[in-house]
Write a structure and sequence with these properties.
Elements lengths: L1 H22 L5 H8 L3 H9 L6 H11 L3 H6 L14 E5 L3 H6 L14 E5 L6 E5 L14 E5 L10 E5 L5 E6 L7 E2 L16 E10 L3
Antiparallel strand pairs: 1-2, 3-4, 4-8, 5-6, 5-8, 6-7
Protein name: HTH cro/C1-type domain-containing protein
InterPro entries: Cro/C1-type_HTH, LexA-like, LexA/Signal_pep-like_sf, Peptidase_S24_S26A/B/C
Length: 215
Amino acid sequence: MLKDQEQFEREERAKRLVMARKNAGFAGPKAIVDRFGWNANVYKAHESGRNGFGIADAKKYARAFKVNLNWLQFGTGNALDPDELPASVADVPKISWVSAGQLSEQAPITDFSEFPTVAALDLPDGEWIALEVEGNSMNKISPPGSIIFVNLRDKRLAPNALYVVADETGAATYKRYRPNDDPPFQPASYEDVPPPEFQGAVTIVGRVRRSIIEM
């Protein structure tokens, strides 16, 4: 009986998710995946009711579709009841690592209009870029394929904080700041990854404030 009730609740939650997506003006799951960069298979499984979703995903969906969290997750209240904090969605330019290195030059890139974008919910104030992580040098925090969000306005160094930096060749890298190490920008990996070999002076591109990966 409990299993039947759980299945019923999962299916009803999925119906509300479909309703929320349609009312937000998205024709289908593909439009959602393209807009927010979510994992297509995971989202489709949630919409179909094949897999259930918990409160973390419910918060993400409620904010993206601008519906009430309690309505979406539990079916209580109305979809358009105001939540305590309205969602803020930003389209963040997703650039390449080569372009990230160019941000440290004397005449940095200032026009991001031609770059694709990835949607991010509730980023703090700042000037943001997104990068897709390559390699395993930061896999304790950001496995390969993760998207990191970098605040170009935040260049203040703080121990153990995360940064994108570039050397004089324009090569950019993502590392953790360890002021007592040499060099002070170090990997955070489960593997034996050597620290970067910088050429010349190192410039702070920006501080990494969010890392996401879809499972």
